[in-house]
Amino acid sequence: MNFASDNWAGATPEVMAALARHNDGYSPAYGGDPLSLSVAQRFSELFERGVEVWFTATGTASNSLGLAALSRPGGVVFCGEDAHVHTDESGATEFQSGGMKLVPLRSPLGLIDAGALATALGKHPVGGRSIPVALSLTNATEWGTVYGVAQVAELSAMARAGGLKVHMDGARFGNAVAALGVTPAELTWKAGVDFLSFGATKNGCWAAEAIVVFTPGLLGDFEPRRQRAGHTFSKARFVAAQFEGYLEQDNWLRRAGHANAMSERLRAGIRASSVARLGWENTANEVFAVISKAALARLRAAGGAAHEWPSDGLAADETLVRLVTSWATTEADVDGFLGVL
């Protein structure tokens, strides 16, 4: 009954098998190996166009290095007020970019409000002292909600009209794609996204993230930037191996779909409960529920885990918890949690 985070789950069998499969013998270092090149081609096939792929070890590195590659004096990046780049990455984008400013926008349930973006663009006009350079969207969001294709397209069009590039933080990109039933291309470049932080670690990899650039060359001379940040792997084949196992036979979507299904099982049980309620409705693999503090104590006593989430307006004996399901979550885990309520 561990719902602390999908980061807590291990690597999937197919990812571990790919790592073992590519462990024998020698292979060129620093990404020049045949496997890394074939995985880059696999990304092009996945996104239905030629893309540029840069491996990193963490989502924070993908987000901050990608955005920093667009930096310029007075640069501004718009993001959601609860976006990971803004609240959880310890100023990584500002640091990697040499001081580019993040400007958080109103984002109910994690989804940036189009009116708030329009207002922000009006406050930072082209030719002003602060120069908007990018819009960062998180999909799926930290609230477990998902931007649909039309929403991405609307915000991207506004950003492009203001001269901005569009970045997508896809730490849970698989969950978003699986929830919507669309193609990766439809949710990204076809809707106006310029580059994507393609997350895999949360969905069953050991440590594998990638920056996928839909217009090769957009991030400029990126290799020395990545090297300076310490994210150029010498044994890059082992990152590529994880992606091989992750992407083959659509394992990534199957695993994300399972995590989403376990979340929906949780939501259904909480909707039917007389002693708990949903904080809000969503579709990805995070569930936010209002439960009693006694129930949370029982869960933890049984060896389960869930994070309490800040919230106002609850009764003294209530708490809001975030429950994150993963590829490893079982129906028994879900039913066990519902049983402690």
Automatic annotation (TrEMBL):
Keywords: Pyridoxal phosphate. Residues 3-283 form the Aromatic amino acid beta-eliminating lyase/threonine aldolase domain. Its cofactor is pyridoxal 5'-phosphate. GO terms for molecular function: lyase activity. It comes from the Bacteria. Pfam families: Beta_elim_lyase. GO terms for biological process: amino acid metabolic process. The keyword Nucleotide-binding does not apply. Belongs to the threonine aldolase family. Homotetramer. This is Threonine aldolase. It comes from Devosia insulae DS-56.
